[in-house]
Amino acid sequence: MSVTKLAPHAPTGPWLEPGLLPGDFYACQELLSGEERAKVERVREFARTEIAPIVNDYWASAEFPFEIIDHFRELGPLTWADPRSPEKPPSNLLTGFTAMEIAHADASIATFFAVHSGLAMGSIRKLGSEEQRLRWLPPMSRFEQIGAFALTEPCGGSDVSGGMETTARRQGDTWILDGAKRWIGNATFADLVIVWARDVETGHVLGFVVEKDMPGFHATKIERKMALRIVQNADIVLDSCRVPEANRLQNASSFRDTAEVLRATRAGVAWESTGLMLAAYEIALAYAKEREQFGRPIARFQMMQDLLVRMLGNVTASLTLCCRLAQLQDAGVYRDEQSSLAKAMCTVRMRETVGWARELLAGNGIVLDYNIGRFVADAEAIYSYEGTREINTLIVGRAVTGLSAFAR
């Protein structure tokens, strides 16, 4: 029986080689400017050398590689942070490719980055006052302060907009927060947590920047996860947590404002899922060329080529969808339903693609050393967070029919 040529801890193939992206079949990267491509290549090299070699061990132990934060600092700012800067913010196309490249190496680190730079920084950037943006965004962009985003509750996920139980009660220049949040990524070590709570007086949903040392804030790691094991998700308890008015996001006054943040981050999840399936395709392609059965590489068998082409089709469809959505974002004309369609469809295609990669690798597909088993598990979490497929489908369905099918 032929034995795979792949080393057990260092799979070979183009997915780990610098400067190559064989899954970009329609050359979508050419949509970037030369300067943007150079930045993406820096991120790709960072992901290849700093993330990919360490993630399997950390995934197995369900621990976070805190040294990676230092490497992010060395890489330099990846998001716009200083409103006083004469430099233009990076394009959404560049931001999307950046997210895809990080997810190409690992979905957990991509989730850490997305929670910090997209959800936490995005909330402050979109909904904070000028003073608040100047106070928090520059150190966050330098990874000197890490952010988290607390919206989901133990009894409220898809219905949290109408059923939020966490409350905010004002006493002079202080707000008293009470309640609980669940599945909050980065929360066990974040310096700043964006907490969403319902004002007991007005019923409106407000956003607060809760600092980790504020009395009444408690975060406990969720154990025994089967996906995104590197991400330190937490249960948060807010027990008469006192937050100054200066930490209330000044431009957040309803859940519509929260949804403004989610519109952008759902687009980011589409990019992340594309990065994950892109890596799965490239690993499967390299494996098929090297793995021999019946005296020849399995890439010469028709059924294996069929799997590879199906995978490539999913990657290509998802990447082109993401690129067009980014162009709409950069033009300032994208809508909630467009982000929702991208999130829903790309995550469905991701689930299919990593499953086909697992099928192609057969037994090796469930061994962590070959990465695919990690992708299959992590895909399940990405499929559900930032709005389930069903919720995003209802958002798109309402847009195309003009009729809401949401339960009341």
From TrEMBL:
Cofactor entry: FAD
Give the UniProt record's GO annotations in the biological process aspect: fatty acid beta-oxidation
Q: Write down the InterPro entries for this protein, in alphabetical order.
A: ACX4-like, Acyl-CoA_DH_CS, Acyl-CoA_Oxase/DH_mid-dom, Acyl-CoA_Oxase/DH_mid-dom_sf, AcylCo_DH-like_C, AcylCo_DH/oxidase_C, AcylCoA_DH/ox_N, AcylCoA_DH/ox_N_sf
Domain (Acyl-CoA dehydrogenase/oxidase C-terminal) spans 258-400
Gene Ontology terms, MF aspect: acyl-CoA dehydrogenase activity; flavin adenine dinucleotide binding
Lineage: superkingdom: Bacteria
- Keywords on this record? FAD, Flavoprotein, Oxidoreductase
Keyword Oxidoreductase belongs to the record? yes
Acyl-CoA dehydrogenase/oxidase N-terminal domain span: 35-142
Q: Name one Pfam family in it.
A: Acyl-CoA_dh_1
Q: Does the keyword Flavoprotein apply?
A: yes
What region holds the Acyl-CoA oxidase/dehydrogenase middle domain?
148-241
PANTHER family registered for this protein in UniProt: ACYL-COA DEHYDROGENASE, ACYL-COENZYME A OXIDASE
| Family designation | Belongs to the acyl-CoA dehydrogenase family.
Q: What is this protein called?
A: Acyl-CoA dehydrogenase
Which species does the entry assign this protein to?
Answer: Microbispora cellulosiformans
